[in-house]
């Protein structure tokens, strides 16, 4: 019998059904998220195509991946959701993927079975409504001390007041999932973003494809999703799932930039030779590939670990974020270097991915914060090591 510290070896291979899912989402993105569409939508109000979002939910079932069928979802697991989000990230898809799919839906799935959960979750999965997750976090963990909203009321009647700064996807969201301090502690509520007492102010953001807004609530009517006894656990779960899906999105964006850089290095001539034939460029592209493969393994191991319960979810999600945030930002910067002067122009797509990379790196904790958290978890707990092979064919 192997001892506790022995190395467990496992192989992860995508199933034929998961490969078909990837193909379907990639085809959807080719139709609805080409370069010209992205530029048009990021300056539109709302900053996404509502018909495409509806199709993503009702026709493709992407918004219901990881949601049990009895809750109106598509079934599957977090790995399936990660595959879809990777392809959306590769296409720089404009839509509330982060606020709705990555955070709000997982929170509602983990919430107690109540009419409020069913009434809120169903339209999000179908794509008829969108949501934003206005819950303060620090390095991807619930920051209870940073909760600024106050809830007054009891049973089915609640009113929330306060301000939350910089909430991703809040500007056009239909629902707001908010953490607020009530009589018994911090609880989770849902607020109709279009209802009375809600004021949203759009903010300037580095990444125009991922808008943010400040939220001010003044006795805004709210419905209780989970009380103080369950809310912290639910929020922690949602933030861990969000970190893994954000990592998958980063993998998709990084893969697109790597492909773009390799293609350009083959076509761009200097001194009568493709620049890809020069040693310095070869080495840079090789380093980008190593970063990308490392990130892909970390992201999908995180999804697999959370889905199957095979590892500490806090550790797996932090490894995914620390690895993928660093990889995406490095690959984005190197892509601009490989492209030279054209990579700095507004007309070229590289700067859009560069801005997405550095924005993503600031969401749910920086790579440095997650590395510190990993050190604390590993030093405080004896955890087995895992050797993972990811087949990406």
User: Order of strands side by side in the largest beta sheet?
Assistant: 5-6-10-8-7
Poorly predicted ranges: 1-9
The helix/strand class is alpha+beta
By DSSP, the count of extended strands is 13
Q: At the third CATH level, what is the topology name of the largest domain? A: Butyryl-CoA Dehydrogenase, subunit A, domain 3
The helix tally amounts to 11
Main CATH class of the largest domain:
Mainly Alpha
What CATH architecture label of the largest domain applies? Up-down Bundle
The CATH superfamily of the largest domain is identified as: Butyryl-CoA Dehydrogenase, subunit A, domain 3
Mean of residue pLDDT values: 90
- Helix percent reads 40-55%
Strand portion: 15-25%
> SSE string, helix = H, strand = E?
EHHHHHHEEEEEEEEEHEEHHHHE
The major sheet is characterized as: 5 strands, mixed, barrel
As a whole number of angstroms, the C-alpha radius of gyration is: 21 Å
What best-fitting shape do the alpha-carbon axes yield?
globular
Number of spatially distinct domains: 3
How far the N terminus sits from the C terminus, by CA atoms, comes to: 34 Å
């Amino acid at each position: 019998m192997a001892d506790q510290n022995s190395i467990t070896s496992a192989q992860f291979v995508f199933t034929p059904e998961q490969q078909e899912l990837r193909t379907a989402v990639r085809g959807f993105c080719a139709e609805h998220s080409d370069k010209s569409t992205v530029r048009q939508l990021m300056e539109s109000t709302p900053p996404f195509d509502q018909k495409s979002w509806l199709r993503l939910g009702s026709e493709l079932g992407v918004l219901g991946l990881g949601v049990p069928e009895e809750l109106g979802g598509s079934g599957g697991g977090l790995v399936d959701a990660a595959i879809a989000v990777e392809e959306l990230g590769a296409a720089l898809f404009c839509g509330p993927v982060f606020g709705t799919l990555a955070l709000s839906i997982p929170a509602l799935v983990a919430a107690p079975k109540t009419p409020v959960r069913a009434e809120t979750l169903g339209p999000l999965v179908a794509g008829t409504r969108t949501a934003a997750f206005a819950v303060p976090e620090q390095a991807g963990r619930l920051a209870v001390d940073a909760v600024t909203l106050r809830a007054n009321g009891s049973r089915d009647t609640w009113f929330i007041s306060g301000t939350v700064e910089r909430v991703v996807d809040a500007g056009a969201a239909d629902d707001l999932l908010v953490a607020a301090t009530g009589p018994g502690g911090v609880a989770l509520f849902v607020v109709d973003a279009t209802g009375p007492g809600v004021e949203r102010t759009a903010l300037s953001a580095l990444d125009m494809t991922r808008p943010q807004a400040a939220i001010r609530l003044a006795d805004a009517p709210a419905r209780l999703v989970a009380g103080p006894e369950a809310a912290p656990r639910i929020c922690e779960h949602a933030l861990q799932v969000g970190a893994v899906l954000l990592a998958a999105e980063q993998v998709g964006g990084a893969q697109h930039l790597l492909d773009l850089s390799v293609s350009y290095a083959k076509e761009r001539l200097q001194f009568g030779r493709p620049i890809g034939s020069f040693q310095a460029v070869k080495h840079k592209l090789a380093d980008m590939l190593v970063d990308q493969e490392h990130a892909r393994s970390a992201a999908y191991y995180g999804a697999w670990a959370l889905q199957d319960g095979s590892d500490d979810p806090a550790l797996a999600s932090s490894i995914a974020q620390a690895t993928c945030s660093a990889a995406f930002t490095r690959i984005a910067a190197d892509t601009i270097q490989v492209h030279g002067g054209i990579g700095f122009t507004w007309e070229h797509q590289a700067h859009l991915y560069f801005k997405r990379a550095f924005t993503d790196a600031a969401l749910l904790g920086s790579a440095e914060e997650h590395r510190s958290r990993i050190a604390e978890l590993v030093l405080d707990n004896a955890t087995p090591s895992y050797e993972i092979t990811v087949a990406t064919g």
